[in-house]
Structure prediction request, 678 residues.
Amino acid sequence: MSKKKKQKKYREHWYSGITEAFQMLVPGNKIYRTMAGRRARTGYRFILPFIIGFLVFMLRPMILSLQMSLSKINILSGTMSTDATMGPVNIFGIKFNFPYGNYSYAFGTDPDFNRLLVDEISRMAINVIATLILSFVIAVILNQKFKGRIICRVIFFLPVILSSGVLPGIENSNYVLNLMNSVNQSIQESSGVNISAALQDLLSVSGVGSGVFDVIFQMIDAIYDIVMASGIQIIVFLSGLQSISPSLYEAADVEGCSAWESFWKITFPMVSPLLLVNCIYTIIDFFMKNDNQVIEHINEVMYGVQMDLGVASAESWIYFGVALLFIGISSIIITGAVKSYE
Amino acid sequence: MSKDNTVFIGKHSSFRERNRRSGGYLLRRRIKQIGISVFRGLLMFGLCFMIIQPMVNRLAMSFMEERDLYDSTIILLPRHVTLQNYVDVANLTSFPTSMLNTLWISLLMSLCQVISTTLVAYGFARFEFPLKKFWFACVVALIVIPPQTIQTALYMTFSRFDIFGIFQATTGAPLSIRSSIWPYVMMSLTCMGLKNGLYIYMLRQYFKGVPESLEEAAYVDGCSTMHTFVKIMLPDALPVIASCFLFGFVWQWTDLFYSRNFLSGYTLYAVQMSTMTTRMGRYYSTSLTDAITVTTGRSLQLISIAVLFCCIPLIILYCFTQRTFVESLAMTGSKE
Prediction:
């Protein structure tokens, strides 16, 4: 009962948590000496490393980088300043002194940023959907009983190691090698060795909706990347599948459900909450990958000839904003879909 | 075919006899089962092959001389076997030093990260304190924010490091600790290392699933909070903690971002590997001043071997610990 009261109190003011924290942490207060106060202090002692780390190594750098993205940085003297070219904003005739110059540079002047961003986003949308579908299918298969299932599980988890960090990008990060690859590709395409391209041609000639096929063939061409990126997702789905009690299937079987029906009526609804976890994980994983072209571009702006820290941080903020937007949209869509399904 | 599903009609009657009596149903079912398992086998084999094949390819390539690369009749088995490639790659990546550095740094960092994340996760799982939701939202933010966003700011923070102006006052200038190991040790000890938000989330999920009665019994007997945590919670949580440690180790081993930014004072394998192509020309030239251009095939081959070097220790590690990797993740992931 008392817990409920406390909950209500939290909801009354947004700052009630802060005042309560103050009461519990500062000696001399009434709540300080209660059991709850002691537990709260112990809890804070446990999470203290995180609080310090978050404030010092996350929040402060974030504020600093936001500041940097809004100013011109002189590398030699190490100073930040804003000037008139960064531009005040005119909103409804009122002048705001908002130095957005780096952002407008990123969108307007930088020759590659827009293109790379759009490229990466479209690639990501396709990859995330494909990863979710593929990892779900593989998890369903691995959940069945067949010979060599344990070995398959071991192998499917191997990409978590083999595609981490520097490894996926390394073999195409070299400029010369990239050139070579593109030459190879064009040779393959012209000589007709590329099967999926040939099939695609065939299908588009036969007049089936080519837009859909474009997407599907993009998925098929990227199947290696997708498999390499879906190790953890498979395990998460698999653990979800294994937590379904077999008696549900038995009951369905007795009632005359076919395997197909029990898949859609039992398996899918039970695992669908994990879709959101996996989806968010996949998006984050994709956004932080080393072979991501936007990140490469930002690194280039930062360390390359340009050495413009302001533009680099503006671009990484834009990138972060896009990532956040995507995570938000997909979680809204998926929670909505799961709820309506239930 | 499993026994419990089979309808036995007569103990010794043959399959054909039983099939005839069931009106062809048995045969149809048998065919369907075989079809499904053949399809499944093919799919599994194909995907497994796709994962393993690049590694096998790299291994085969590592024994080839350069001329074998351009010979289209050679696919896997080299015609001119050589071990010179290994020597070259080892020299190019300053092999024993960089690998040993990577080893101890990865061990140290993952140890720091595991200690701090376990404590924090336990705090989040077991204690009620004001602003808990806010701090947990910060953990989620930690998972979501790409470290690239704060890369430059961290770079500047550590090149002019100061705690409340203490160093400025005593030595006259803020410390530049960017190329030492301390920034990353500090970050690891405060849960800001590579993917640490994820570990906090995983461990919290695990601790929440453990029944509270054990700890309550310990409290009743007069055990302190920390003592309870060390003596009662930790022993049971070891598999999950071990898996976090392994993840930390593996991801640190292959990490380029943190290595390049905060550990630039150490020759680390991942960094050496990523900058290998720039040193190739100088390495292969015979004169002291000029660098020659290395052919694309050759540099691709050398990079592949370097990747192989990087992966082999991890694959060996994985072979021994795959149970820890997979099962503890399954243990924590399911309770969403």
About this structure: The beta strands of chain A are 72-74, 79-81, 89-91, 94-96. Chain A has a mean pLDDT of 76. Chain A has three domains: 2-69, 71-99, 107-163+229-341.
